[in-house]
Fold this sequence. Notes:
By secondary structure, the protein is α+β, with helices and mostly antiparallel strands. The protein is built from 15 helices and 23 strands. The chain has two domains: 89-332 and 566-600, D-Maltodextrin-Binding Protein, domain 2, CATH 3.40.190; 335-561, Roll (Dipeptide-binding Protein, domain 3). A seven-stranded mixed β-sheet has the order 9-10-11-2-12-22-13. Strands 19-18-20-14-21 form a five-stranded mixed β-sheet. A four-stranded antiparallel β-sheet has the order 5-6-8-7, with helices on one face. The longest helix is centred in the first third of the chain and has 42 residues, at 3-44.
Amino acid sequence: xxxxxxxxxxxxxxxxxxxxxxxxxxxxxxxxxxxxxxxxxxxxxxxxxxxxxxxxxxxxxxxxxxxxxxxxxxxxxxxxxxxxxxxxxxxxxxxxxxxxxxxxxxxxxxxxxxxxxxxxxxxxxxxxxxxxxxxxxxxxxxxxxxxxxxxxxxxxxxxxxxxxxxxxxxxxxxxxxxxxxxxxxxxxxxxxxxxxxxxxxxxxxxxxxxxxxxxxxxxxxxxxxxxxxxxxxxxxxxxxxxxxxxxxxxxxxxxxxxxxxxxxxxxxxxxxxxxxxxxxxxxxxxxxxxxxxxxxxxxxxxxxxxxxxxxxxxxxxxxxxxxxxxxxxxxxxxxxxxxxxxxxxxxxxxxxxxxxxxxxxxxxxxxxxxxxxxxxxxxxxxxxxxxxxxxxxxxxxxxxxxxxxxxxxxxxxxxxxxxxxxxxxxxxxxxxxxxxxxxxxxxxxxxxxxxxxxxxxxxxxxxxxxxxxxxxxxxxxxxxxxxxxxxxxxxxxxxxxxxxxxxxxxxxxxxxxxxxxxxxxxxxxxxxxxxxxxxxxxxxxxxxxxxxxxxxxxxxxxxxxxxxxxxxxxxxxxxxxxxxxxxxxxxxxxxxxxxxxxxxx
Length: 601
């Protein structure tokens, strides 16, 4: 093949290759179009279905995640619980007014409550109502019971960071013993010598043995470095008592605010802060506020509106709060006795047979059953379980027939309106009581029961201020003018009830005049005086038997029941337990451990 032919053959082969490649490109394009049609445009029509499918899966995943979170939280709540935690400001409402925080003068519920928070005594009561050291680390008495030695804790300080020593203790009791200072405790401290051998030791020398003396060492101690230069006659009215108190208790003074345009609506807000140097440990609460109210209605309204955490001083659970599940009721039993005291010196109740008949005519079990709280009966001058208590000397039980027979035998004849007479003298007497709901109910029930044996009882209810005049220790035109008195007396842990039943306490010169029955018995007097001067518990028990026997036979009073201190709180107060207390302010005995906040752990 020549050169020309080879060139023509090469061109033909090139053209065939080009046509072949074009044909392949065309076929590839057609395949791509077919695949695009099949794999995209046809499937694009099913996109709505796919979207719904994907949405369903996404929702399912969200629900599953939420369920896992909810279950985790549920299990967390199951395995965790609410526990108390430090912090929070506690506000307590009290009916009354603030007048004096100084423990040498505090007597009202408001004053003693504030004083208990601010000041510490040498001794205090623990959770089981037994004496324990407060400022004191230990104490002991000599064999005769006339000398008591108290040892202070080291490194005690006042809330202004000054040291607290035995000199402050001696100063406190010397002020109480000074008549010009006019302390209500004056009568209990006469004849006692107080001295300080060293900064951590205090010695008390008594004129006569007194087994119950340590129980008088719970009074708050005041600072000598602040009050030492104050004239005794001015001690009761210094600013320290109302606006600048400095103590050594769990809380320190912060401020006082008075609100209200008139006396009827006036309130005081006393703010306290935790004392970091408190010898028993800094309180767990961040603050404490005492808020005063002039009447129960105002206090109840404030508790209902959650303005206060607690209410103190109410006589019973308010009906408006009965359905509130967040309200906690604390019934704190008092080592006290509610009794009806018969004035034995004159009138129809001077007849012991009449008194014995009235005791038998009183169904005290029914009275207790109608109270708003459970309690223990009082059957004599000593409380059940107290040292020296003997049930063999309990007052006579309820026996209506026996009561009528006793009155018949004593010459009391039933006359008009069913009232008994002895000659021309009707069996009629007045019963005085404080006009609280509880005492009013008890008084009316007693009058009804005694009416069943022919006694005409004239009920005389008194408001708080007027009633205090009736039972006042100081002689006055209205003090001790009742025939019978429905009243509660504080007895305490120790059985020394000398001030209520010894005949010396009738005398107008007596510093206490707490013998409300004006009861006099040589047998009772000798027993009371012997019992209080014996240190040995077994011997004291023996010495108190003649007193209880005389009391049972003479029936100077009708024992009813042990009262309670009602304390209402909104929510729980951790550290506050329903244990026996000796006075209202003792509810704060462990206030440094109170907690109101809750956290989940």
